[in-house]
Design goal:
The protein has 612 residues and is mostly beta strands. Among the domains are: 81 residues, Sandwich (Immunoglobulin-like); 162 residues, no CATH class; 83 residues, Immunoglobulins (Immunoglobulin-like), CATH 2.60.40.10. The chain is 4% helix and 60% strand. The longest helix has 22 residues.
Length: 612
């Protein structure tokens, strides 16, 4: 049997246990916390940087920044992005600038900083082109595709860097190439102005005759049919061609004689030289009267049929015309004050006068020459209109002066045919008693319609327009091209119009009846040249030019017959080089322009498939 002492011992123990148990249960246990370290790799020693953890910012210059007393839980962090380097042209960028972790599962955050350099891309001269990819920060040691694009009138020349040790160019002379960046600095695309050779071609001069052209303020001389006028940068230039003097009273008048040329779209102009003869008009005796054209010398185009008129002066009365050579100037009626003369050479035409007695009550007679027999015509004298189908109209019993006007033009009822009174006088004032007749010279004219196909070419066109032309006239015709259209040909509506050389921009046309002259232009085209580098020999590659795709297994793709203008192009990506190998272009777009910057380079790089 257990003694009471034993039960007493158990009681004491139980009481102590109860007391001790009550004291432990009421005690506060200390919280468990952790240290979290944010570490960096890549910053130069001693570089100041910061980290933010759970809203708290700590800074340091070592490779680790520690945050203490962090309880278990989820937290977010971030680091300085970017970290500025010792110079304004370098910086350090973290691979992952921020993130979240679970404590205590993860107590360390590591971030890798990469070095970047500030690279400025520029062009020279200003506005001569553009440089891709443009000014930015780039990773140290990275190799990137660079490409230049010239603006109108310029051609890429080369790349140049301000600090050559900081950059490695795969090809300094290729518009598209690769650049390895080892430091900060500037890379500049140099462009040169495109020069175009300018020339003038003449038609109509005797062989080996010297002539000249002034282009952009400089005079160019020569005796060949084509005159070189130097090479010039793109722009708009004024030009002129002077007349050419020749022996024997002959000169050659240029058509057109001046204009404006915009290079490189237009680099040539045809000049048609028209032969002209010096004809002198005189009176005999001297000062006995006047003539129209006026007394003196002037040049007239070979074949010109023109009216000539003699005017009495005082008591002098017209008696007839004489010419030094009828083979050089033919006169229709040598006894008529107003008649027609045809110029075929250089000579003198004289109006002869004799003395006479002025009238007191005068009659005035108006004559016409040139109209078909029986054609109705008329004249207005002092407000009264007189008509006749004969060759003369007489107004008698006049005691005072008066105004007169010849009817012009005179129609024939035939489409595109009329007779026009030309020269002096077709109208004027009759001085009482001074003369007793006036002659109106009518010249047959045909209606020449000039059209252009297409109707609008953005400048340029024919040097003549729709007009009435004297019958039998040999016209100098010339075409001026525009920036997008070039001369194609001349065509006519039929046999009433003959052209010496329809395939030449400058030539002669003879008008023998109503006709239509058509100037036909064609679209100016060029060729775009593309070259690829980096691909294995014989590998097929391709590119897209304004939605049209082209392929080749050679190093070149030439796109021909392209109208002048600017085009966007894109090389084909993802060329299959075998299992796990692709070839991709270093730049994915570009622009070319014809005729100014029609070449581009596609740089390909090999890419391997890597599975992690």
């Amino acid at each position: 049997m257990t003694s009471w002492r034993t039960w007493a011992g158990f009681g004491v123990v139980a009481i102590m246990v109860l007391l001790l148990g009550s004291s432990v249960a009421g005690a506060v246990r200390p919280a468990v916390t952790y240290n979290v370290a944010v570490t960096e790799i890549g910053l130069p020693a001693g570089t100041s940087w910061s980290a933010v953890f759970n809203g708290v910012t700590n800074s340091g210059t070592g490779s680790a920044i520690t945050f203490s007393g962090i309880s278990a839980g989820s937290y977010c962090w971030s680091v300085t992005n970017p970290v500025t380097g010792t110079a304004s042209t370098n910086r350090y960028v973290p691979y992952a600038a921020s993130g979240c972790i679970s404590v205590p599962n993860q107590l360390t955050v590591s971030d890798v900083y990469t070095t970047q350099y500030y690279v400025t891309f520029g062009v020279t001269p200003v506005s001569s082109g553009s440089a891709y990819p443009g000014t930015n920060w780039f990773a140290a040691g990275s190799t990137l595709a660079i490409q230049s694009s010239a603006t109108f009138g310029y051609t890429f020349h080369n790349w140049a860097a301000t600090r050559t040790a900081n950059f490695v160019l795969a090809s300094a002379t290729s518009a598209a190439t690769e650049l390895t960046i080892l430091g900060a600095g500037s890379v500049t695309a140099h462009f040169t102005a495109t020069k175009a050779a300018v020339s003038f071609t003449e038609v109509g001069l005797p062989a080996s005759t010297g002539w000249s052209a002034v282009f952009g303020g400089t005079s160019y001389l020569g005796s060949a049919a084509t005159l070189a006028a130097g090479s010039h940068v793109p722009g708009s230039y004024s030009w002129s061609v002077p007349s050419v003097a020749h022996s024997g009273g002959i000169q050659y008048q240029p058509t057109p004689a001046s204009g404006t040329m915009t290079t490189p779209f237009q680099t040539g102009q045809t000049i048609v030289f028209v032969e002209q003869f010096s004809v002198t008009f005189a009176t005999n005796p001297s000062s006995s009267g006047t003539t129209a054209p006026t007394v003196g010398s002037a040049y007239y185009t070979n074949g010109t049929n023109m009216p000539i008129t003699a005017f009495n002066s005082g008591t002098w009365q017209f008696s007839g015309w004489s010419t030094g050579s009828t083979a050089k100037v033919g006169i229709n009626s040598k006894t008529t004050q107003g008649t027609n003369a045809t110029v075929m050479g250089s000579t003198t035409v004289t109006a002869k006068f004799v003395t006479g007695t002025p009238c007191t009550t005068c009659s005035i007679t108006f004559y016409e020459v040139g109209l078909p027999v029986g054609t109705g015509w008329g004249v207005t004298f002092n407000g009264t209109f007189y008509t006749s189908t004969a060759s003369s109209i007489s107004v008698t019993g006049q005691k005072q002066a008066g105004y007169f006007t010849a009817q012009t033009p005179v129609g024939t009822g035939q489409f595109g045919v009329q007779y026009y009174a030309t020269g002096t006088p077709t109208s004027g004032y009759w001085y009482f008693g001074e003369t007793n007749s006036f002659t109106f010279s009518y010249v047959k004219e045909y209606y020449l319609t000039v059209v252009q196909n297409p109707s609008y070419i953005g400048g340029g066109g024919p040097t003549i327009s729709t007009q009435w032309v004297n019958a039998g006239t040999q016209l100098a015709i010339s075409a001026i091209s525009s920036s997008t259209y070039k001369f194609g040909s001349w065509t006519t509506s039929g046999p009433n119009l003959t052209i010496v050389t329809p395939s030449k921009a400058g030539t002669f046309a003879t008008v023998n009846g109503p006709a239509t002259l058509s100037l036909n232009f064609v679209t100016a085209t060029g060729t775009l040249h593309f070259q690829r580098v980096g691909l294995p020999t014989g590998m097929t590659w391709g590119l897209t030019v304004d939605s049209q795709q082209y392929w080749s297994s050679s190093a070149y793709i030439n796109v021909t017959g392209v109208p002048y203008g600017t085009y966007s192009w894109t090389p084909v990506t993802g060329l299959n080089g075998g299992p796990g190998i692709n070839w991709n272009p270093e730049s994915y777009f570009g622009q070319v322009a014809t005729p100014t910057e029609a070449y581009a380079l596609a740089v390909y790089a090999e890419a391997f498939q890597v599975t992690f």
